[in-house]
Design goal:
By secondary structure, this protein is of the alpha/beta class. The protein contains twelve helices and nine strands. The termini are close together. The structure holds phosphoric acid mono(formamide)ester and norvaline.
């Protein structure tokens, strides 16, 4: 039987996505009550990180431990991947020994190639193209603050048309959100996704117009991992794309602000906004833990069902 993978939000049906998000809320409440839930003793998660991480690594590692299993951190520096062992061979070997795999890398095609050869479910922990695990946490946070039915909510994305922006487009399609994207010319998100989202996504150049009457405003760094050498050019190109108090003032008075973190105060977001009363970034970061536990549970149990 082919395992279920989670390389993008589209790997779940809209109903399955809602199921995972509901389960994430239950697991969070259970965790808060101090109740142990460890249904996966001896299950092992293999984690390949070709880029840096704080939240993704900690949430997967802690999540697996809380579920009764364990996680192994693998980097190209100290595995044969860094010495040129093909990803397909690594996929066959790693998935013969662990129960679920998470990969953070550069090219999205690499995660797809890994998944094609893996006998265990593969989770995308961020590629240059998307970051679907972050969207599970972001959607969970939106639900916490806006109620379980988020259909029709207006989300403003301001800044770079990057992996997070692409993921928000997928979320708009899956959850029936209205997404307003404000990016500078030349930094547009994936054209195919935009086409697919027609009717749900509007592309603008003015951050204030994007934020108008929004229920939520989100942004991300101007230079993603792998783009560090473009930082100074991007500082100029994005100079008018900071989420500041003026931008937030365009949104609904009770709108929330999200940022996947790490953040650069004074660049994509002012300190006043990220550290202010509308910011929900700490809930968002914590929700990585609960949402991914729900995802792991879904993938492992779904795998059992189809075995
Ligand atoms: N948001 C996020 O994925 O954070 P890390 O890069 O720290 O994992
Ligand atoms: N867009 C950012 C997200 C980090 C979690 C990056 O890819 O670096």
């Amino acid at each position: 039987m082919k395992p279920r993978h989670f390389l993008s939000l589209f790997d779940l049906s809209p109903a399955e996505l809602q199921q995972v998000l509901r389960r994430a809320q239950e697991l969070k409440a259970q965790h808060r009550r101090g109740e142990s839930y460890a249904p996966f003793p001896q299950k092992v998660l293999g984690m390949i990180f070709e880029k840096a991480s704080t939240r993704t690594r900690i949430s997967f590692e802690a999540g697996m431990a809380q579920l009764g299993g364990s996680a192994i951190f693998l980097s190209p520096r100290d595995t044969q991947l860094g010495r040129g062992e093909p990803i397909e061979d690594t996929a066959r070997v790693l998935s013969s020994m662990v129960d679920v795999v998470m990969i953070r890398t550069f090219e999205h095609a690499k995660v797809e190639r890994f998944a094609a050869y893996s006998t265990a479910p593969v989770i995308n922990g961020l590629t240059d193209f998307n970051h679907p695990c972050q969207l599970l946490a972001d959607l969970q946070t939106l639900i916490e603050h806006r109620g379980s039915d988020i259909r029709g909510q207006t989300v403003a994305w301001i800044g770079d048309g990057n992996n997070m922006c692409n993921s928000y487009i997928s979320a708009a399609i899956m959850c029936d959100l209205q997404l307003r994207i404000a990016v500078p010319p030349g930094y547009e998100p994936d054209a195919e996704l935009l086409k697919q989202a027609a009717g749900r996504v509007v592309l603008l150049r003015d951050p204030r117009a994007a934020a108008r009457d929004a229920d939520m405003v989100a942004t991300d760094v101007w230079a993603s991992m792998g783009r560090e050498e473009e930082q100074s050019r991007r500082m100029q190109d994005f100079a008018h794309f900071q989420v500041d108090a003026e931008v937030m003032a365009q949104a609904k008075p009770d709108a929330i602000f999200l940022h996947c973190l790490p953040a650069h105060r004074g660049e994509e977001v002012s300190a006043e906004v990220i550290d202010g009363p509308q910011s929900r970034v700490w809930d968002e970061a914590e929700n990585r833990l609960h949402a991914q536990k729900a995802l792991i549970e879904f993938l492992l149990l779904d795998g059992d069902k189809s075995a």
